[in-house]
Amino acid sequence: MIPFSHCIRNLLRRPGQSCQLIAGSCVVVLLVMTAASMNHAMKQTLGNTGDPLNTIIVGAGSEESVERSEVKQGVAEIIGSSISGIRQIMDKPSLSPEIHFNGMLSTQDGKSSQALIRGVQHVALWVHQRVRILEGRFPNPGEIMVGRLAHKKLGFNRSQLQIGQILVFNGEELIISGIFDAIGTVLEAEVWVPLQDLMTYTQRENLSCVVVTLDEARSFGDLDAFTKRRLDLELVAIQETEYYTKLSTFYKPIRWMAWICAFLLSIGALFGGLNALYASFSSRIQEFGAIQAIGFNRWKILFSLIVESSITGLIGSLLAFGIVVLILQGITVPFSIGVFVLNFTQIILALGAGTGLVLGVIGGLPPAWNCLRPSLPETLRAA
User: Which end of the chain is more exposed for a tag (fewer CB within 10 A), N or C?
Assistant: First the structure.
């Protein structure tokens, strides 16, 4: 077997080509890991948002989008008095009548951006139990409460969404009264407004939905039966987890686009690496002949060349790991209903290492085999 140190020396003898191959491997591994992290983060964020005990009551025909839903006022009281399996807190049912509205928010300096605005009452904190008020308090009339990551979704500076700052919505100036989080969900990129205020600002008479927290998941059947029995109310009950699972399915093509872009760019980098390896190995044909002449067969030389190219792939992976840990880890990526945070898990890092290794093997095999095909006399006579 050819010594491992021989492979290292060959890489050091051609630092320019080695750096080129390592950089190409780094780019490919980085693209693959970023695509994997985006897929995982978006899917996990949408999955975390749904509570298995929560049910969303929407208008019939609006199961795909709460924003398009219309639910009559008073439905929450009717449900609270008709269903026995609703969780009670302080002898009151956990029912949150809400309006979900996509609208433009502006800062005082005129910068505008579209936000997901949720009109709620205090009881929303009972229903959405992941929500925690970090600073300030729940909004009173003329005030709003913003999510911890709302500035990422809106593209504003963090300082513009601090307590006491003013945002403009539909010509009304609203004072930020609090900041909340809901770790790992899309909620923490939202803006919450008192329900009655939002109905006034948007001139709406109906709700978007009613979110109900049940004592246990099996109580959903009673709630579902109620909506089917009361045809006059035109309601549909959908479990919150199912709603966000459908949203995740809706965004699946976007997640696939990330993979497709990473794949196409990786193919380009792979061909560039193949070209560099062909040039590198072709200039060493005489060296391969000399190694065969002293007793090493072609298979051992082939293995040595694959090890050599695999080393560049693994070094590229290590560089990609460094970029991921120092720069990309924790970056927030906005999308239409919120933001997700890139998280490079151990599985994703293992995928990156495997990609670098496979890239080295696949990239090194064709040029190595092409250079080892000539007979020993032809190899020794090669210029």
Answer: C
